[in-house]
């Protein structure tokens, strides 16, 4: 008898011949370049990972999913899967039209037959799906500030799968996994969902879960899009590969899931269950605060610790996957082994290292004990997160024209070069204008573009372990925030406000610009005819009036030492 987790499930791909014909015809269709999130969604639609969806949800399906986790025909589905597009693109389309869906290189992956086009109530979507319309939630921020204004729905014809150049042998479609389980005769398979590196507690937990369910184990990490700030997927997969040989080969396998997570807590757990069922899994480990995004804007957790398990349990029969409780595992010193937190022998010492503490130890180069993690995993993490004094960082000076930013930045550059150890690059406002932004004027829009270019270059320098020193005027708070976000993905960001008064800058007026601005010969001049939004909480504020340049640069050096970015 063939078990249900072995039978193939429907995919949305057309035959090879049909794909050739359609690809030829699709050249004349309006085409949409997919965003990274849409690429993940489309791949799982086409390969059956999102079965029973036949494409991007119609307005009726979307409304049902938002309001009560069900598509219009009553199927359980907790997550809106829609194609969000710009208003300009949507204006050119009418329901009944076909559009080509392309990857970043312009390759046509699928054809969407548009049946619905609507402007969603995004606040309602945020409230119902994520529990709150709160921008502290990464998916709510995405919904309002990244996603397009208009949603399109309709069935999809898959022409070809997106190409992945990394970890090819580790990526399996739902049908490839089902075929593997069929071949190995695995009737019961428990899946472990993770977006973090595996440490010893996770290994203990997965061993116990497989034993409890008397099942084989599928380690099924997400490598699509996870929570901003997570360890990159290349490092994580290297960490998983480093511990795979700690598992018995005959009972464990690993496969990568190209899913764009929403961090939607309880609904996400149900969604993960349905996706795993499609991949041929029979049991699923649901953790405490499963797929939680962290704190809301009031500093409280978005979801209760057991909300995800409760919602999963309510729908378990319909999901078709049995939930395995995630046990919080702790290390008992006297027994030199892991125990579930609720089974710790009385009078023993429990050792634990939190995620925050682990990051601190990596950042400061402190030892990470073997009872907590495998040396092979720690070695991979240290490659990606070296100690703080080995990481790249950006020092971003902001202040009025003539405040002394460039002079202090030059002095700082020389001091850091004297110390050695990391390459130092100075991105001075005038130099960047000459080499990167020569075509830009001084309107607000052009100044923003110029600062974002500086931020992009600084983030690349930071990513590659160098030091970037930036000294533009950067008068607007929002633009400085955008630069900080770019850089902090890769390393530390130190904002230095050079707090010289406009009167003092005008008195210095080395370049004669203030005089020209007062005469009306320079339009939109910061501090005279255009505002300078003062940083409210910079890492450092330096006063240049009555202080020499050397002292100002030394204040920055002391701040970098206190942040652990350079050795005292």
TrEMBL record:
Identify the residues that bind ATP: 399-406
Q: Can you state which reaction this protein catalyses?
A: adenosine 5'-phosphosulfate + ATP = 3'-phosphoadenylyl sulfate + ADP + H(+); sulfate + ATP + H(+) = adenosine 5'-phosphosulfate + diphosphate
Query: SUPFAM superfamilies, alphabetically?
Result: Nucleotidylyl transferase (SSF52374), P-loop containing nucleoside triphosphate hydrolases (SSF52540), PUA domain-like (SSF88697)
Q: Start and end of every ATP-sulfurylase PUA-like domain? A: 9-160
Which GO MF terms does the UniProt record name? adenylylsulfate kinase activity; ATP binding; sulfate adenylyltransferase (ATP) activity
Please provide the Gene Ontology terms (biological process) for this protein: hydrogen sulfide biosynthetic process; sulfate assimilation via adenylyl sulfate reduction; sulfate assimilation, phosphoadenylyl sulfate reduction by phosphoadenylyl-sulfate reductase (thioredoxin)
**Locate the Sulphate adenylyltransferase catalytic domain: which residues?**
170-383
Establish whether keyword Transcription is in the entry: no
Q: In which pathway does it act?
A: Sulfur metabolism; hydrogen sulfide biosynthesis; sulfite from sulfate: step 2/3
Q: What is its EC number?
A: 2.7.1.25
Which residue intervals define the domain APS kinase in the entry? Answer: 391-542
Q: Which InterPro entries match?
A: APS (IPR002891), APS_kinase_dom (IPR059117), ATP-Sase_PUA-like_dom (IPR025980), P-loop_NTPase (IPR027417), PUA-like_sf (IPR015947), Rossmann-like_a/b/a_fold (IPR014729), Sulf_AdTrans/APS_kinase (IPR050512), Sulfurylase_cat_dom (IPR024951)
Which keywords belong to this entry? ATP-binding, Kinase, Nucleotide-binding, Nucleotidyltransferase, Phosphoprotein, Transferase
Q: For this UniProt entry, what's an example GO CC term?
A: cytoplasm
Q: Which HAMAP family does the record associate with it? A: Adenylyl_sulf_kinase (MF_00065)
State the family it belongs to. Belongs to the APS kinase family.
Task of the protein: Catalyzes the synthesis of activated sulfate.
Provide the protein name. Adenylyl-sulfate kinase
In which organism is this protein found? Answer: Gemmobacter fulvus
